[in-house]
TrEMBL record:
Annotated spans, Disordered: 421-456
UniProt name for this protein: Diacylglycerol kinase
UniProt lineage: Eukaryota, Viridiplantae, Streptophyta, Embryophyta, Tracheophyta
Record key words, sorted: ATP-binding, Kinase, Nucleotide-binding, Stress response, Transferase
Gene3D superfamilies from the UniProt entry: Probable inorganic polyphosphate/atp-NAD kinase, domain 1 (3.40.50.10330)
Class in the EC hierarchy, top level: transferase
Length: 472
């Protein structure tokens, strides 16, 4: 691969990137112009090294450190300049706008941050996005074929990734809006959730827009979005413990392989690899740290990250409904672009092991365009929630108030995918529509009863005065 001529396909000239520029010398017209966003703090030293490699290869002005510049500010500036040049008759700017692609290197939170910005900005020509795995889970990159392991940062590896970006196909992905509201306490802290503990994609309304009609007086209102999953309960609790421990002891969590194996610990697969890992770290307290987190949170070493489709970058808890399920309950396979949420329940941690059986899945509760949760006063004063790998500790009502969580379809953005893409599109004729061999024995006896008892605690049971069939 001839580096200089190849790299010229991606380079954007200064006059496109600098505000107020006049129509400049066109020069070589890039076939695949890119803007690169790197979280320099992700992946240990890898983030900084990757940032430097991209800046050495491309125009440094088209490579941004997310620790220094927010993506919304960057994209507003670049697109404002493109629009200005386009109005001046700059055909070069018009071509750049049409062909522009984004690359984001970071964890799932970083990737979701950029996806949310692109969706919120409502750009005239929204660019498709490629994700570089540079975190612990790397679920979004894995789902679209970009791999799960953190990349090497040398020039050859970056050129290879750019070559994949040039050849990648576009696939739409649904964006889900989450709205959470709780009554402001009469005494005590004004912030029920510390701002630093919030996911990138979840924001307090009063910090976003005081004029927003959904920012109710006397309430704390939060809004945000997610792309892969929203979960509550045991998996979010373990994830929160993991993230909290990593903040307190970052030196114990520098190895991506170990971080991932914490979630995969003692699965039916990878036994030889895990034995090797145990031997390697036997003389340290790293494994003790991970095992303690898993056991103490009640997850009984059940893995959270897997190796297949959508949930947490791994196994598909919805499965592929057979023909009878599609007919009787109007269920469909889990597509990333159908505007439907798959709502799945697990009775307890052991129930989660069903995912490792052939064609195993959780209890299918419903598919819906939107869903609303209401939490009332109970035995617990908090629960744990997680969106796209980012957990937080959610306070619950202590009196007669209600915590409300509403999830609804917001829109779509375009992702770039490789030939190894695991995500399925409803518009792809090769995507499976049914699985005739599926075993649904766990649901066949009495679906209504199964839906009502899926939660491990009384607070998660569906009241008997609610018809489960109307939940979708």
């Amino acid at each position: 691969m001839a580096s200089s001529s190849f790299i010229s396909n991606f380079i954007i000239p200064d006059h496109i990137l600098v505000p107020g520029s006049l129509v400049g010398n066109k020069g070589h017209e890039p076939e695949c112009p890119v803007l690169v966003f790197v979280n320099s703090k992700s992946g240990g030293q890898l983030g900084g090294d990757l940032l430097q490699t991209y800046r050495n290869l491309l125009n440094p002005k088209q490579v941004f450190d997310l620790g220094e510049q927010a993506p919304d500010e960057v994209l507003r500036t670049v697109y404002a300049n493109l629009e200005s040049l386009n109005r001046q008759g700059d055909q070069f700017a018009k071509t750049i706008m049409k062909k522009l692609k984004l690359i984001v290197a970071g964890g799932d939170g970083t990737a979701g941050w950029l996806l949310g910005v692109v969706c919120d900005l409502k750009l005239s020509h929204p660019p498709p996005i490629a994700t570089v795995p540079l975190g612990t889970g790397n679920n979004l990159p894995f789902a679209f074929g970009w791999g799960k392991k953190n990349p090497t940062t040398d020039q050859g590896s970056v050129e290879s990734f750019l070559n994949q970006v040039m050849k990648a196909k576009e696939i739409k992905i649904d964006n889900w809006h989450i709205l959470m509201r709780m009554r402001a306490p009469k005494v005590g802290s004004c912030d029920p959730i510390p701002p630093l503990e919030l996911p990138h994609s979840l924001h307090a309304f009063h910090r976003v827009s005081e004029a927003d009609e959904l920012n109710m007086e006397g309430c704390h209102t939060f809004r945000g979005g997610f792309w892969n999953y929203f979960s509550m309960g045991m998996d979010a609790q373990v994830s929160y413990a993991f993230h909290s421990e990593r903040k307190k002891n970052p030196e114990k969590f520098k190895n991506q392989l170990v971080n991932q194996y914490f979630f995969d610990f003692l699965t039916l697969e990878r036994k030889e690899e895990i034995c090797t890992l145990v031997q390697k770290f036997l003389k340290t307290d790293i494994l003790t740290t991970y095992a303690k987190l898993g056991c103490s949170q009640g997850w009984f070493l059940t893995p959270l990250l897997h190796r297949a489709d959508s949930f947490s970058g791994g196994l598909n808890p919805w499965g592929t409904p057979n023909r009878r399920k599609q007919s009787d309950r109007d269920l469909t396979p889990p597509f990333v672009d159908d505007g439907l949420l798959e709502i799945v329940g697990f009775r307890n941690a052991w129930h989660g092991l069903v995912l490792y059986a052939p064609k195993g899945h959780g209890t299918r509760l419903a598919q819906a365009h939107r869903i609303r949760f209401e939490f009332r006063k109970g035995a617990a004063d908090h629960t744990f929630m997680r969106i796209d790998g980012e957990p937080w500790k959610q306070p619950l009502p202590v009196d007669d108030d209600t915590v409300v969580v509403e999830i609804s379809h917001l829109g779509q953005v375009s992702m770039l995918s490789t030939g190894d893409c695991k995500s399925k599109s409803m518009y792809d004729p090769l995507s499976p529509r049914q699985d005739v061999e599926e075993d649904d024995s766990d649901e066949d006896a009495s679906p209504s009863e199964e839906f009502r008892k899926f939660g491990a605690a009384d607070t998660f049971k569906i009241p008997y005065d609610i018809d489960p069939s109307r939940l979708s």
